[in-house]
Here is the input.
Amino acid sequence: MAKQKKQPRPRAQTPKGFRDYFGAEVVARQRMLERIARIYRLYGFEALETSAVETVEALGKFLPDVDRPNAGVFAWQEADVPGGGSGEWLALRYDMTAPLARVFAQHRNALPTPYRRYAMGPVWRNEKPGPGRFRQFYQCDADIVGSASMAADAEICAMLADALEAAGIARGDYLIRINNRKVLSGVLEAVDPAGAVDRDAVLRTIDKFDKVGAEGVAALLGKGRLDASGAYIEGVGLTEAQAAPVLAFLTSRGESAAETLANLRAAVGESAVGAEGIGELEQIAESLAAQGYGADRVVIDPSVVRGLGYYTGPVFEAELTFEITDDKGRKRQFGSVAGGGRYDDLVKRFTGQVVPATGVSIGVDRLLAALEARGQAGAAEARGPVVVTVMDRTEMASYQAMAAELRAAGIRAEVYLGNPRNFGNQLKYADKRAAPVAVIAGEDERARGVVQLKDLALGAKIAENASLEEWKSRPAQFEVPRADLVAGVRRILEGTDG
Amino acid sequence: MAKQKKQPRPRAQTPKGFRDYFGAEVVARQRMLERIARIYRLYGFEALETSAVETVEALGKFLPDVDRPNAGVFAWQEADVPGGGSGEWLALRYDMTAPLARVFAQHRNALPTPYRRYAMGPVWRNEKPGPGRFRQFYQCDADIVGSASMAADAEICAMLADALEAAGIARGDYLIRINNRKVLSGVLEAVDPAGAVDRDAVLRTIDKFDKVGAEGVAALLGKGRLDASGAYIEGVGLTEAQAAPVLAFLTSRGESAAETLANLRAAVGESAVGAEGIGELEQIAESLAAQGYGADRVVIDPSVVRGLGYYTGPVFEAELTFEITDDKGRKRQFGSVAGGGRYDDLVKRFTGQVVPATGVSIGVDRLLAALEARGQAGAAEARGPVVVTVMDRTEMASYQAMAAELRAAGIRAEVYLGNPRNFGNQLKYADKRAAPVAVIAGEDERARGVVQLKDLALGAKIAENASLEEWKSRPAQFEVPRADLVAGVRRILEGTDG
Here is the structure.
C-alpha cells in the first residue's frame, strides 16, 4: 500500500452513466427475473448464459446509435502477449441477440432445432448517459432460432404478454404492437424503386416518430430540421411526394386488425415484398386470436419500427399504457419496456446458411422503474436481521452464540460488530437496518439467566419521535429466560409483517 | 446486411478464455447462488450490485498476476466525445472487493456501519487462459466494512462453513484454513529488519507453496529456479539463513491450535506486529470454538497466504479435502474454492480514513466443478417441455391452443415449430429436448375428438434402441378425449420423475 499513499487519492465514483443497486433493489430485480424466467420456461425455453465479452467481429455493428465511437459498444484491443490474445478486438455485448446468433452458429450440431433459449443479464451501451439512462442495464430475452413459421412470432408475442403480467403489469396496462419490416420495404419500393435513399437511415428516422411526431419525421425524411438544441439535423433526402406515403403508412393503424391490414394493402401498392409482409401479419393476427390474445393485449400498428438494423420481418414492441408522473412532476406515458422481431440473417453472417429466428427482449430495469412509479415495487421489502447488541465486549462469544442459535432456527440475526461503547449507536444501527428485534444482555441479565427483547417495529410504530428515555420505558420490551431466546424472538416476528 | 455479404464471414467463436453455459449448467449455478445468498442473508448481509465497469483509478492495482498488460484487468480508454466520457480509463472489475471499497467510500453517509453486504456475479481477469481456467467467472462475496473486531473475521469463517454446506459440500469434505499477514510480517521483520527485500514478492512466492512445494519456494525465496517449461524464474534474493525461518513458518502447523500458536510465537521472535497477529488468531480461534466450529471445519494454518496484495491481517482459505479424478485420469485434491481476509486500507485509499473491513469470496464456478466431479451436480436436471407435434400444418392454431391450455395448467409445453414435414424429426427433437410427453393429433384424431399422448420417458426406458416401428406400437402411447388433454398429460408426468 506504500505506493498508493504517495499518489493523489482516487475518486470514489462510478464511471459516468453507471450506478450501484442496493438491497431491496437487487432483490426486486432478481424476483422479477425469476418470474419472467418461469414464464419463458413454461413456453419450453432453456437457459443460456454467454460471457459478457465477445469479439467485435462476432458482435457485428447493428446498433442504431452510430454517432459514438466503436458504434456504441465498449471495445478494446487485446495485447499481443505470448500464449495469450492475438491482438484481436473484444467488446462488451450490447444485447443478447448477437451473442445468441454466435452461439447457434458455433454449437448448431449439438443444439436442438428449433432452439428455444432464454437469457438474462446485463448489457452495455456506449451511449451518452442521461437522467434514467444508464450504460449498463438488464435484459431478459427469449428467442426461437430455426423456425420460419409465423406461429413462432405469434408465440413470442403471447409469451411477452404473459411475462409482463407475471412481472406485475395488469392486463390493460400494457399493449403489444406488431409491425413488419417487409411492409415498410414495400412502401419504400413503391416510392423509391431505384433504391436511391439509405434504407437504414429511413428506419432510424421513422423510429423517432414517438419522440418528434409526424411533422418532425416529415422534415427528417426530407431536407432535415433544427434540433431542440439548435443543431441542424440532416434529412435523408426524400421528396415531399416520396415522404407522404411513408408518413401515411406510419399512421395507418385502423380501428381493427382488418382495417389496418386494408390500409397497409393500399400503402404497398404492387410491391411483392410488401404483400408478403402483410400476409405474415395476417398469420400472426389469426394465430393470436385463436389463442385468445385479443386487441386488449396485441395490435397491429404500422408506426412500430424498432431501431436495430438486423430485423427482417415482424417487429414487436410492448408499451405501458398508464401515465406516470416524471421527475419534473409532468404526467406522461411510460412508453416501451420490451421489443423484438424476426432476424433471419444474423446466423447467416457466420455460416452462410439462412437460419430464421425471432425473439423478444424485456428491458427489466425499465419495467422495474415502471412498477416503482406506480408504487408497486419495494412493497415486499425484506425486513432486517435481529440485532444482538453488545453490552459487555468481553462477552462477545456469548453474543455470537445467541446469533448462532437464532440462525440455526432460520432467523436472520447478527451481533453488532461496530464499536460497542455507545449503546445509542447500536440502537441507531438496528433502526437503519430495519431490525425487527434487538436482543440486550448485560451483566445483570447474565447473572439472572435472562435476555431482554426489544420489539423495534412496534416501538417505531407507537412513538416515531419519542426520546431515548421514553423509548426505553416502552412496553415493547420484555424479558425472557436465556433458554427461550429463539421462542421469544419468534413470538415478536410472528406478530409483525414481513 | 448488404455490407456484410462482401466481407469475410466472422468466426463463430467466444474469445479465448471465455465460454458459454447451457440449460442445466445455468440453472445449477443459479440454485447454488441462491443457497449461498440465503446463508449470507441469515447472517444479516444485504445485497449490493455494482456495475461491471469501474474506473481503473477506483479499482487500483492489487492483482497478484502482474505479468500481463494492465496488471491483469481488461481496460480501455474512453473516447473524448462531446457530453460523453472524458477520456478516462475504464476496466471490468476483477473482484467484488475493490468495487465494495469504492461503494463504501462513495455512499458512507447513507449506509449503516458496520455495513454487511453480499454480492454475486461475474468478475473478469485478463490472465492467460488454460484448461478449466476462464477469464470470466462467478464470485459470491460477503464482507463486513467498518468493524475492527476479530469477531467479524470469526463470523465470516463460520458463515463460510455454513455456506459451503448449503451449497452441497458435506462436513468433513472441506477445511477452512486461517492465517494472519501480520505474523508473516513479524517473521520477515525478524529475518530482514532493514526491509531490503520486496515484501509483495515474498508474498507471491509463498503463495506458490501448494504448487511448487517447500523446495521450490526455498529456491524462489533465494536465487531463483528453473520453471517446468525450462524458463529461469528470478528469486527474491533472501539468503539461505533468511529463507529458513520463513520456510519454518510456512510449515509450522501443529496438531492443535495451541501447538500452532506456540510454533508461531517462536517464529516471530521479538516482533511486535508478529505478536499482534498471533493475538488476533487466538481471538478468532476462541470465538469459533465458542460457536461450536471445531478443527473439523476451521484450523490455523501458516501456509495460507492469499495472493492479493491488499490483505492486512487475518486471511482465510477454504479447500475441498476430497480427491477427484482430473481430465488425465489422475487423482488429486480439488483445492481452494474460497478465500478472503481483512483489508483495513482499501477504503482509506479513497477517504484517507482507516475503515477496517473483512470478507470472503466463494469461487462459485470452481465449487460447481467440484460438485460435478463428485457426481453431485446436474442430478436434479429439469426435464424438457411437453411437445405438441404438428401433423397438419393448416391446424397450427389448434396445436397452439393445446400448448396454451397446458401452460395455463402450469405444465411446460410448446408446439414443434420446425418444418413439420418429417414426423421422425419431430420425435427426434422431442427426444433431444428430454420431453416427457409428445401430443399427437392428425386428421383422424380431430375427427374423433381425441388426442394421442406418448409417454416418452417410459418409451425411452423400455426400449432405448427400438426402431421407429416398434416404438410406435409401444403401449406407452394412449388416446384421451381432446377435453382431457391436461388431465392425461398430468397423469403421465406424475408417474415419472422430474
User: Anything to note?
Assistant: The domain at 386-494 of chain B is CATH 3.40.50.800 (Rossmann fold). Chain B touches chain A through 118 residues (CB under 8 Å). The CA atoms of residues 261 and 282 of chain B lie 8 Å apart.
